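Work Package 4 report. The design task specified in the project plan requires that, given a folded chain encoded as structure tokens, an amino acid be chosen for each position. We show below one input record used in the internal validation round.
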């Protein structure tokens, strides 16, 4: 019988934390620290949330089989986010991530902000390690339309795993603010802690509302959600109040642009998981996909996995979504973001079994492409350009080539700023 989330109420609530300031001698400490020392200190804060998130996932069938978002994942995300930031800043510094017309337009439009150069890599590292602590639970935020025509936010407790999953970026931000003193003790100023929280929140388009990273309006709504949840937290924990000061970067064009760049690096780093066969799920258990049982000659993901043997430990995974996700993600064995020889930001994906689970694999690839479309996906709102190079470990059948060509055509109509390239393009 499945445990309920109520059975975890006796676990310590690591959201509770004290506020704190930073002494002057610590203000520049962060610039002198290497990532290894920083990572160890951040993981001391993050680890209790990872432990609790595993226990929470075990209480729900879908949560148990959900892709891993604990310590192994966040350490990889930190590495991939830094790699992505290297590529992004290289082209931002040259003014070529966005075209000249876009850069000039954004400077003259009050609601637009260009991607910024010179992001704080220690902040990015810390946000990457902290971005999934909200998988341990917390608050649920619901947007409603007020009588004044403006969005209003209702905050309540998460009641089930779907609430937790859907609101985990918000709760990751709240966890950072709740542990302000610990982050201060690592050398971060209060302003930097607020930026870390904002980056955690913004890593999810749906939860944060930042669908367009170059939109000041989207960022404003994101900060409104944090403010509403801070208020709910303070009402729940009187005497242990937390705070969030958005003014330092919301009203500063340069800092908001840097936040947009960091959030883009984190989003791409987050989706860049190298799953491999038998990868761990959120519960810490391994998921096995018997690829010989996948139907590779059908026209839907549902039919691909209809009779597939997809198990967690010794149990069949029943969730249709989870089955499709694991079939797709476990077929992506490696991916990196870098500059190509022409100085273009390029995301490289390696597919393990080129002819297996094509549609589920393409759905997993679309998750990657969607994060590169985070900065706008249509028309004039496309503020950056990317290449996605897909490599296959082996020879593709004609039906596989046709399937992936169809997929590329579909993606080109959705994400106009992303160009997909295949090995056979060079042969034409």
């Amino acid at each position: 019988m499945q445990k309920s989330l109520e059975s975890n109420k006796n676990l310590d609530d690591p959201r509770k934390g004290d506020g704190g300031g930073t002494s002057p001698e610590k203000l520049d400490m962060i610039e002198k620290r290497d990532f290894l020392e920083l990572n160890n200190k951040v993981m001391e804060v993050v680890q209790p949330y990872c432990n609790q998130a595993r226990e929470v996932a075990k209480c729900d069938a879908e949560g148990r089989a959900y892709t891993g978002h604990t310590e192994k994942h966040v350490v990889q995300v930190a590495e991939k986010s830094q790699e992505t930031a290297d590529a992004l800043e290289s082209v931002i510094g040259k003014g070529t991530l966005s075209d000249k017309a876009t850069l000039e337009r954004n400077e003259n439009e009050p609601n637009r902000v260009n991607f910024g150069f010179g992001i704080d890599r220690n902040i990015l590292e810390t946000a990457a390690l902290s971005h999934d602590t909200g998988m341990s639970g917390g608050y649920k935020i619901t947007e409603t339309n007020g009588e004044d025509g403006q969005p209003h936010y209702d905050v309540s407790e998460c009641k089930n795993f779907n609430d937790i999953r859907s609101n985990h970026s918000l709760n990751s931000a709240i966890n950072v603010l709740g542990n302000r003193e610990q982050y201060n003790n690592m050398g971060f100023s209060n302003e930097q802690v607020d930026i870390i929280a904002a980056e955690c929140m913004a890593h999810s388009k749906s939860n944060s509302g930042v669908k367009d990273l170059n939109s000041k309006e989207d960022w404003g709504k994101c900060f409104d959600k944090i403010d509403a949840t801070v208020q709910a937290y303070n009402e729940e924990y009187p005497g242990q109040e937390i705070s969030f000061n958005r003014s330092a970067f919301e009203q500063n064009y340069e800092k908001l642009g840097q936040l947009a760049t960091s959030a883009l690096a984190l989003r791409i780093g987050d989706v860049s998981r190298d799953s491999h066969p038998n990868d761990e799920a959120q519960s810490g258990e391994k998921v096995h996909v018997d690829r010989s049982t996948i139907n590779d000659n059908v026209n839907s993901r549902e039919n691909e996995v209809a009779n597939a043997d997809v198990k967690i430990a010794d149990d069949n995974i029943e969730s249709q979504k989870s089955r499709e996700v694991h079939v797709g993600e476990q077929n992506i064995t490696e991916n990196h973001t870098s500059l190509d020889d022409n100085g273009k930001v390029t995301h490289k994906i390696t597919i393990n079994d080129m002819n297996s689970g094509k549609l589920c694999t393409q759905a997993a690839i679309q998750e990657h492409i969607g994060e590169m479309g985070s900065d706008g996906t249509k028309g004039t709102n496309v503020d950056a350009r990317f290449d996605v190079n897909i490599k296959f470990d082996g020879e593709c059948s004609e039906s596989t080539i046709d399937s992936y060509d169809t997929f590329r055509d579909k993606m080109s109509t959705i994400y106009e700023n992303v160009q997909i390239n295949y090995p056979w393009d060079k042969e034409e």
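The longest strand covers residues 332-339. Validation will be extended to a larger panel in the next phase.
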